[in-house]
Q: What sequence folds into this?
């Protein structure tokens, strides 16, 4: 209890500074978290992490959000991180608690999301002996974290926590994990509590690109006739959206973004080509494939972007701007590689840039835009999913919502039919494609940005994977708007079975419950929508509910397909705009 | 001709695991890795031969440099190296064969390091080709067992083996 009193004193006595104190390791961990500015932790307690939860009682300034499954905890941490740019934090116990994090850690690794996972572990004297709730968490998470630490001695604990925060946000962001055995957590020791600035990573960063390399890039831009900016999630991490816009405007270059890059360039700008890739716009895909210069910024030439790699943009030179040296030449050879933070590099590059002549290129692009707009046809009877999503956009856009998307058809339609204009407003699982990501991510985003309207657009399949996050949202009275685009299928899988597996539908029909009543059963509001004329009133009604989450279950055309589509491993010349209809450049 | 990466890591099983885990996870094709102690007992040095026809050595290096347990990656490229392999070869050796085996060993500057009732152990050191050749010659007598170190290597001369600056222009 003495420790607790001291802690309270400490909390009010900011700024924090270096000091020595005797306490149990669990309290030292909490001190490190406070010093890192942690305001909310998502988690579930258990045997091995009990000391941490005991210590938590003495730190009321850190809110703990109790989840119903650890996967929700880490997706919430991801949603918090993506909405705020600060690392999200989650707590679990050993064994199953920690193994339930693996999907989320992988997701964070793929999408470069900074999260710090703190896991309890069985006592050191049990480790390696198949103790109750023991799992080799370090081994299991080695390939899905930037680094992980097993703390064997009390003195290592604060440093491990601080280093986990440094590394999670350093360079290319990503997940880190600290594994804390229970006996270590309970050991009392003399700790030196430091300011976070006292901890730095041991290795130097790659040197900033030299003038000569920057000039090479500027020359390539000046000499190009058909340039394109290909912008990924790295631009959002870097905060480089203004610099992207400045470069596009200075050199009159069209901009396409990846799914992860949505919001990095305003899509209401005349230079925006919207999203590219498998379900990107026809004009973005034509533009990048017929370009003679790709300026890739914070993007990694993912297969969902390139299709068949050997046939992707065959005449284009590549300027690759990325903070991760291991991305250079990974998928596509770079003619000029600029390694470093996108914002700093673009700032250094901008004064050197001379506008190329892109008149003819723009005429070509405008032609593609006119011939191949995104489209769907809404009739009187059945709700088209695109219509529902467009209505959600139209009725909420003035509130500048933060939107979380799950994985599948609705994700692609939302990517297409929203007009994304602001970084950190589109939060979705891009690299791993984790169904069930979006509802807990919305909860995390709302904790991070209580000032903003948070919308979750979900699928009926994915909604059921992490439905329990709604219970947490109700508990905290979060006014999240959940729209379930309900086609009673695992829609994207059904689409592939229709198009590529001879309509042999296998395990894709979902015998769904009534989601509105499910929502009401846990204390949220529930609205069910079955006809096109009900869509707008239902969205308006949902927007008036501000004291709890609301689930709007929108029953849509079960067999609507998502187009355009470049089938997996194929090229832009195979891009379908309807079944059997290809786009022609 | 392999492109050599000399990777200094923390001397621990965990660090080794991290390096192997990474190479496997990224499906980076590398040759047989050998592991040596260095002048610093806290370090281990891994010698990783990379075939540039299969994978860009800079990609392997950039990935390794992301690991916190990796202290330095020296890119030895195709610099002149002293490369040594060592083998212990247990040969079936009735007394009448001793002289002949001893002569063969002398030819390879190998040494006989153990004499058993029916076997000899020959210690041979040198380039991989020399060690291969020696073992092949000893086959005639009947090789019972071979244990081999894998290559140990060092850049010739002084000062050239300093860590190269982290990759500045991968694509230049």
A:
């Amino acid at each position: 209890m003495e420790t607790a009193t001291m802690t309270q004193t400490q909390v009010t006595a900011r700024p924090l500074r270096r000091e020595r104190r005797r306490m149990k390791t669990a309290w030292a961990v909490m001190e490190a978290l406070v010093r890192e500015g942690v305001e909310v932790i998502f988690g579930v307690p258990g045997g091995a992490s009990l000391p941490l939860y005991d210590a938590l009682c003495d730190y009321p300034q850190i809110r703990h959000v109790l989840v119903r499954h650890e996967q929700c905890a880490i997706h919430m941490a991801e949603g918090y991180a993506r909405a705020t740019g600060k690392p999200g934090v989650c707590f679990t116990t050993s064994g199953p608690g920690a193994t339930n994090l693996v999907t989320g850690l992988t997701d964070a690794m793929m999408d470069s999301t900074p999260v710090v996972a703190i896991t309890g572990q069985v006592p050191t004297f049990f480790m390696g002996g198949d103790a109750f709730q023991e799992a080799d968490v370090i081994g299991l998470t080695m390939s899905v974290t930037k680094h992980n630490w097993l703390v064997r001695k009390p003195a290592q604990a604060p440093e491990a926590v601080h280093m986990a925060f440094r590394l999670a946000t350093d360079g290319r962001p990503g997940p880190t994990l600290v594994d804390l055995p229970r006996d270590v957590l309970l050991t009392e020791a003399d700790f030196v509590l430091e300011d976070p600035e006292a901890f730095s990573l041991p290795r130097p960063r790659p040197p900033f690109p030299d003038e000569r390399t920057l000039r090479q890039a500027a020359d390539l831009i000046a000499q190009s006739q058909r340039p394109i900016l290909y912008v990924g999630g790295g631009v959002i991490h870097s905060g480089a959206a203004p610099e992207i816009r400045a470069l596009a405007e200075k050199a009159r270059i069209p901009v396409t973004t990846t799914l992860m890059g949505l919001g990095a360039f305003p899509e209401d700008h005349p230079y925006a080509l919207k999203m590219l890739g498998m379900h990107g716009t026809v004009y973005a895909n034509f533009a990048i494939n017929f370009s003679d210069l790709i300026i890739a910024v914070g993007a990694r030439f993912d297969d969902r972007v390139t299709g068949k790699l050997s046939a992707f943009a065959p005449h284009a030179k590549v300027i690759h701007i990325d903070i991760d040296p291991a991305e250079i030449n990974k998928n596509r050879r770079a003619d000029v590689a600029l390694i470093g933070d996108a914002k700093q590099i673009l700032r250094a590059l901008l004064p050197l840039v001379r506008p190329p002549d892109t008149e003819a290129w723009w005429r070509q692009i405008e032609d593609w835009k006119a011939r191949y707009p995104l489209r769907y046809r809404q009739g009187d009877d059945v709700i088209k999913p695109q219509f529902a999503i467009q209505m959600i956009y139209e009725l909420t856009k003035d509130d500048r919502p933060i939107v979380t998307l799950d994985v599948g058809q609705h994700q692609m339609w939302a990517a297409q039919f929203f007009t994304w204009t602001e970084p950190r407003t589109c939060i979705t699982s891009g690299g791993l494609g984790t169904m069930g990501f979006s509802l807990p991510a919305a909860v995390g985003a709302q904790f991070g940005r209580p000032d903003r309207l948070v919308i979750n657009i979900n699928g009926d399949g994915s909604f059921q994977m992490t439905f329990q996050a709604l219970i947490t949202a109700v508990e905290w009275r979060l006014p999240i708007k959940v729209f379930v685009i309900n086609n009673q299928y695992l829609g994207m899988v059904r689409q592939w079975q229709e198009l590529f597996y001879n309509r042999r539908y296998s395990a894709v029909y979902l015998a769904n419950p009534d989601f509105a009543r499910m929502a009401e059963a846990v204390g949220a509001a529930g609205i069910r929508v079955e006809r096109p004329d009900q869509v707008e009133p239902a969205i308006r009604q949902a927007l008036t509910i501000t004291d709890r989450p609301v689930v709007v279950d929108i029953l849509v055309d079960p067999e609507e397909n998502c187009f355009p589509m470049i089938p997996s491993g194929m090229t832009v010349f195979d891009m379908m705009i309807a079944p059997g209809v290809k786009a022609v450049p | 001709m392999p492109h050599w990466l000399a990777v200094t890591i923390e001397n621990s099983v965990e660090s080794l695991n991290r390096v192997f885990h990474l190479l496997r996870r990224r499906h980076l094709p590398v040759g047989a890795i050998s592991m040596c102690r260095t002048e610093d007992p806290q370090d281990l040095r891994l010698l990783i031969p990379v075939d540039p026809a299969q994978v860009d050595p800079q990609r392997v290096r950039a990935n390794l440099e992301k690991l916190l347990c990796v202290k330095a990656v020296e890119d030895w490229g195709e610099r002149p190296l002293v490369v040594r392999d060592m083998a212990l070869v247990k040969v079936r050796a009735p007394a009448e064969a001793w002289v002949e085996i001893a002569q063969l060993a002398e030819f390879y500057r190998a040494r006989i390091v153990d004499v058993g009732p029916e076997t000899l152990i020959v210690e041979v050191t040198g380039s991989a080709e020399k060690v291969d050749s020696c073992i092949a010659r000893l086959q005639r007598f009947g090789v019972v067992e071979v244990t081999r170190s894998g290559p140990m290597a060092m850049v010739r001369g002084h000062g050239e083996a300093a860590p190269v600056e982290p990759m500045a222009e991968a694509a230049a």
